[in-house]
UniProtKB/TrEMBL annotation:
Topology versus the membrane: Peripheral membrane protein
Lineage, opening ranks: Eukaryota, Metazoa, Chordata, Craniata, Vertebrata
Organism the protein comes from: Amphiprion ocellaris
Protein name, as recorded: SEC24 homolog C, COPII coat complex component
Family listed: Belongs to the SEC23/SEC24 family. SEC24 subfamily.
Residue stretches in coiled coil: none
The entry's keywords: Cytoplasmic vesicle, Protein transport, Transport
Composition skew (Polar residues), residue ranges: 71-83, 122-136
Sec23/Sec24 trunk domain span: 417-661
InterPro entries referenced in this protein's UniProt entry, alphabetically: ADF-H/Gelsolin-like_dom_sf (IPR029006), Beta-sandwich_Sec23_24 (IPR012990), Gelsolin-like_dom (IPR007123), Gelsolin-like_dom_sf (IPR036180), Sec23/24_helical_dom (IPR006900), Sec23/24_helical_dom_sf (IPR036175), Sec23/24_trunk_dom (IPR006896), SEC23_SEC24_subfamily (IPR050550)
Record-annotated Zinc finger Sec23/Sec24-type domain positions: 340-378
Region (Disordered): 1-249
Start and end residues of each Sec23/Sec24 helical domain: 762-861
Subcellular location: Cytoplasm, Cytosol; Cytoplasmic vesicle, COPII-coated vesicle membrane; Endoplasmic reticulum membrane
Ranges of Low complexity composition bias in the record: 11-25, 37-47, 143-161, 204-222, 229-239
Length: 1010
């Protein structure tokens, strides 16, 4: 029996039907499900699967705290009793009525721009870059230029009562100037005002569902791919300039024009619309492209074919991705005490690819073909087509993505987890205080702590919080609710870090509100006159880790740090920035950590479920390559605010911080990707840790993180069954619930190369190549990495030319339709700052970008490598102007343009721009009077100004990091920075223009063919 013959992937409706009051699951709104049918049946051979953590999960290493070291601290009674004071037991949340929007509370909703206007006229490329010679790099941003004083006395190491009087004039900015966008006043619903829109009012898709009929399988908007014998529509190219069809904008606009219907995931092997297209997704049995995107939706059947084509076989998985308000978040399914039902052999979770047989008493696994007994409580009769009659009532039988409630078997030490904790660790050295960072963080936290993630908006967040400040020594704070004032405990021996208090360190915000507020008011005053410039870093993470260990919970550390940690301590670093190494064989060492200490520490953090987010405020080299090791290995994030100046940068920092604290996040996660026989997951790219070859361990996993998975053949695949993958992520939710999120994906398999080349996704291929290359620089010279990329792409295109394209003259470059943009995008990867840096790009910036890109999804890598450039001469409400190509020659002197990369946002103003436009945007008629230091546009009362600010807001809302606006006047010095992002042009660092690169690729391909 063919196990995949009757999979419900092609059911005509994507959502479960009404009548969803079926016991066993509830929509994922955070509440526990209603009482499920308990397992009362007779004993059966069925055994629940083993926990998927794998053998690597050891017991937590919570040992007794060190007691012997002669630490200096006060008010610390170190008793055994204190040490056993754990957090209060968690109260399970009560069952809640279904609220489709509830899951979206803790994160932003991306804004989905409105329909676009008519497609653009064809844009001819004339390839001349005359007048575009860029001879010097962009200027280094001007720092405050002060010389810090010499390090002197350690700060107060006793309990304090009143802040010492400030003794220097460079005080932190006054409180009133701190947040320009204060959080909303009250109520959890208000958190949406940060960056989102309200949840959808109702679940429309449910009501419009039709019963399944087999005829409807292929009547969706997608047309099955034509047979391979059919003439292909290649893009051919013979001249020096790329034809218009190869212009990225045209491809993007064409895709938008043809994607008018919702994308249904029921047709196996159907490539989704591009990431640049707005579309609605209906889950019909495969994961939404918002969760999983593949490089190829028609995989070659054999390893030989795959090798011949050189097309990478990979998927980019974003397990906790936020969905737009009109799509339903994954349902939570409870299979009862026995836990989720799984294949006995390969342990795959119940999914639409399981085929029920023998009247429903057993099921055959779509991954390994093993037959497993159905436990009595899960038994259901089959209809005449062999489908369970409850198929469409159960998410795990009809949908591509859903969650299972995990049982205690899936928990560390067979114990249900505690809710996670957030610990804020703030650098209070001279630089940190002087830049205003300390003051801003403390002011912001007073409000932000009310917006800690929660699954049920009606309830307080279960997340507890703790506070540490540090320079060369660490200061812990007791903020127990019974105290009148917070107490400081100083640990100055940082060589063997421990936490000097347990009771009162991690607290509930509401209970300890007054003490916390008092602490946050006092911290900036306490350190206002510090002269300490040296910092430690390793002990800071150790302190947070030890605190989580002591509380026996997972959690997140928010570290706010300014400088290279040169103070004597574990993890001490030296300045090793050496630009002479760039371009040499030793360049790779600059991307590697300079000491092994942080790798070891990262491993310990992962074992505890301790995720680290690092906010950097450097004025010089801080060695991001080394400091980023722990964040990158624990699923955390690194944010960098070079030359941080409160006035100019706090908006960006605060928006990033707010989003980071509030966003949907899971802890202590393990991801496993299972595949059907014939292929297997062989490599993984992202922010995580692996102690074996199969389990991706993530101390934390948030809604913005993506993991790229590469697949290799280990046998033949069959065209009939296709290839299946199931990505299962076990994690602890922010309320302390243990869950499994499951994403299923089936793709077609082909024995003809032409079918492969008809169904690839170039944006996903580029995501894979960039991560592959950016990891490659750790061990190879950058030139070797670039050469490898060019060679592999040339092979991909040469294989197509040789095997799939119709005969034509050798002078023609023929590209597969879906890879038309491979050369232009690949060129952008090749000339990125990581692989080909300009003289002005710092080593820290390169290390930072390398880490950042490693966990980007396809949408983010796309806009990062090929920025969006919008002409703003005419704005209409409800639609965006059609973008133009990233080239100098697309810019008109009389125009104004907006460019965004996901990290940067520029407003470029032409030198002879019309007065009316200037008046509308800036309120001034004169080009000379535009203040290019502004970071936000003036609020003017005209439709143009209003619409432009709306567009900027919507761009910001779509990205995971806040983009600071930079106004660039034509021919100003800052224009050099802007030009760096005109990626079709030759770059200052020697990167080829698109046209030159296309010629180069053509030559490489011809060489391979001859
Ligand atoms: Zn199996």
């Amino acid at each position: 029996m063919n196990v995949n013959q009757h999979t419900p992937m092609a059911s005509p409706y994507g959502q479960p039907q009404p009548g969803y009051s079926q016991p066993g699951y509830v929509p994922l709104d955070g509440g526990y499900p209603g009482p499920y049918a308990p397992y009362n049946g007779p004993a059966s051979p069925y055994q629940p699967g083993a926990p998927p953590q794998g053998p690597a999960r050891g017991p937590p290493t919570t040992g007794p705290l060190p007691v012997s070291a002669p630490h200096q601290y006060n008010q610390y009674s170190h008793s055994q009793g204190d040490m056993q004071n754990g957090p209060p037991p968690m109260t399970p949340p009560v069952s809640q009525p279904y609220n489709p929007g509830a899951m979206n509370m803790s994160g932003p909703h991306p804004t989905y721009p409105q329909h676009y206007g008519p497609p653009p006229t064809m844009q001819q490329v004339s390839n001349q870059m005359s007048g575009m010679q860029i001879t010097s790099g962009p200027p280094t941003p001007a720092g405050p230029g002060y010389a810090p004083p010499h390090s002197s006395q350690p700060p107060v190491s006793t309990a304090y009562s009143a802040p010492p009087p400030p003794s220097y004039t460079q005080a932190p900015p006054p409180v009133s100037s701190a947040p320009t966008q204060p959080p909303p006043p009250s109520g959890p619903a208000a958190s949406q005002q940060y960056y989102g829109s309200p949840p959808p009012p109702s679940q429309q898709p449910f009501n419009s569902s039709l019963p399944p009929t087999s005829q409807q399988q292929f009547t969706s908007s997608s047309v099955p791919p034509p047979p391979s014998q059919q003439t292909l529509p290649p893009s051919s190219y013979s001249g020096p300039a790329p034809p218009p069809g190869q212009a990225p904008i045209q491809v993007i606009e064409d895709d938008k024009a043809k994607s008018t219907e919702p994308f249904t995931t029921g047709v196996r092997g159907q490539a989704p619309p591009l990431v640049t297209t707005n579309f609605q997704v209906k889950d019909q049995g495969n994961a939404s492209p918002r969760f999983v995107r593949c490089t190829a939706y028609n995989m070659p059947c054999t390893a030989d074919m795959a090798k011949q084509s050189q097309v990478p076989l990979a998927a980019v998985v974003k397990p906790l991705a936020m969905l737009p308000p009109d799509e339903t978040p994954p349902y939570l399914v409870d299979h009862g005490e026995g836990g989720p039902i799984r294949c006995n052999r390969c342990k795959a979770y119940m999914c639409p690819y399981m085929q029920f047989i023998e009247g429903g008493r057993r099921f055959q696994c779509g991954f390994c073909s093993c037959v497993t007994e159905v436990p009595p409580h899960y038994f259901q009769h089959l209809d005449h087509t062999g489908k369970r009659v409850d198929c469409y009532d159960r998410p795990e039988l009809s949908l591509g993505s859903y969650e299972f409630l995990a049982t205690v078997d899936y928990c560390k030490n067979n114990k249900l987890p505690q809710p996670p904790a957030f610990i804020f660790l703030i650098d209070v050295s001279y630089n940190a205080v002087k830049s205003g960072m300390v003051n801003i963080v403390c002011q912001e936290l007073k409000t932000l702590l009310d917006y800690l993630p929660r699954e049920n908006p009606e309830m307080d967040s279960a997340v507890r919080v703790g506070f540490v400040t540090y320079n060369k020594v660490l200061h812990f704070y007791n903020v127990k609710s019974s105290l009148a004032q917070p107490q400081m405990l100083v640990v100055s021996d940082v060589s063997d870090m421990f936490v000097p208090l347990l009771d009162g360190f991690l607290v509930n915000v509401n209970e300890s509100r007054l003490v916390i507020e008092s602490l946050l008011d006092q911290i900036p005053e306490m350190f206002a006159d510090t002269r300490e410039t040296e910092t430690v870093f390793g002990p800071v993470i150790q302190a947070g880790l030890e605190a989580l260990k002591a509380a026996d919970c997972a959690g997140k550390l928010f570290v706010f740090h300014t400088s290279l940690p040169i103070a004597e301590a574990p993890g001490k670093l030296k300045n090793r920035e050496d630009k002479k190494l760039i371009g040499t064989d030793k360049e790779k060492s600059l991307f590697q950590p300079q000491v092994g200490f942080y790798n070891t520490l990262a491993k310990e953090c992962v074992a505890q479920g301790c995720c680290v987010d690092l906010f950097l405020f450097p004025n010089q080299y801080v060695d991001v390559a080394t400091l980023g090791v722990v964040p990158v290995s624990t699923g955390g994030s690194v944010y960098k605010y070079t030359y941080f100046q409160a006035q100019l940068d706090q908006e960006r920092f605060l928006n990033d911080l707010r989003r980071d604290v509030q966003k949907l996040v899971g802890f202590d996660a393990v991801m496993r990707v299972r595949t059907s026989t014939g292929i297997r997951a062989t490599d993984f790219f992202g922010s995580f840790f692996m102690s074996n070859t199969t389990d991706v361990e993530l101390a934390g996993l948030d809604c913005d993180k993506a993991i790229t998975v590469e697949f290799k053949h280990d046998d033949k695949l069959s065209e009939e069954t296709g290839a299946l993958m199931q990505c299962a992520v076990l994690y602890t939710s922010c309320s302390g619930q243990r869950r499994l999120r499951i994403h299923n994906m089936a793709v077609n398999c082909c024995s003809q190369l032409a079918d492969l080349y008809r169904n690839c996704e170039t944006d996903t291929i580029i995501n894979f190549f960039s991560k592959y290359a950016f990891r490659g620089v750790l061990n190879n010279p950058t030139k070797a990495v670039r050469d490898t990329l060019v060679n592999q792409c040339a092979q991909i295109l040469a294989c197509y030319r040789k095997n799939c394209a119709s005969p034509s003259s050798a002078g023609q470059l023929i590209l597969p339709e879906c890879m038309k943009l491979l050369p232009v995008y690949l060129n952008c990867v090749l000339k990125s700052d990581v692989l080909l840096p300009g003289a002005d790009v710092s080593l820290d910036d390169r290390a930072y970008l390398r880490q950042l890109i490693s966990c980007m999804d396809v949408t983010e890598t796309h806009v990062f490598f090929y920025p969006r450039l919008l002409p703003l001469m005419k704005l209409e409400s409800g639609s965006l102007p059609v973008a133009v190509r990233d080239s100098e020659e697309r810019l008109s002197k009389g125009g104004v343009y907006l460019l965004e990369t996901g990290l940067h946002l520029f407003l470029w103003v032409g030198a002879s721009v019309q007065q009316e436009l200037l008046l509308n945007i800036f309120g001034t008629p004169s080009f000379g009077q535009i203040d290019s230091s502004m970071t936000s546009l003036p609020v003017l009362d005209n439709p143009f100004s209003q619409r432009l600010r709306e567009i900027i807001d919507s761009f910001r809302a779509q990205r995971s990091r806040y983009m600071k606006l930079m106004v660039v006047k034509q021919e100003d010095r800052a224009e050099l920075i802007f030009r760096h992002f005109l990626v079709e042009d030759k770059s200052a660092s020697g990167g080829a223009s698109y046209v030159d690169f296309l010629c180069h690729m053509h030559k490489e391909i011809r060489q391979l063919l001859s």
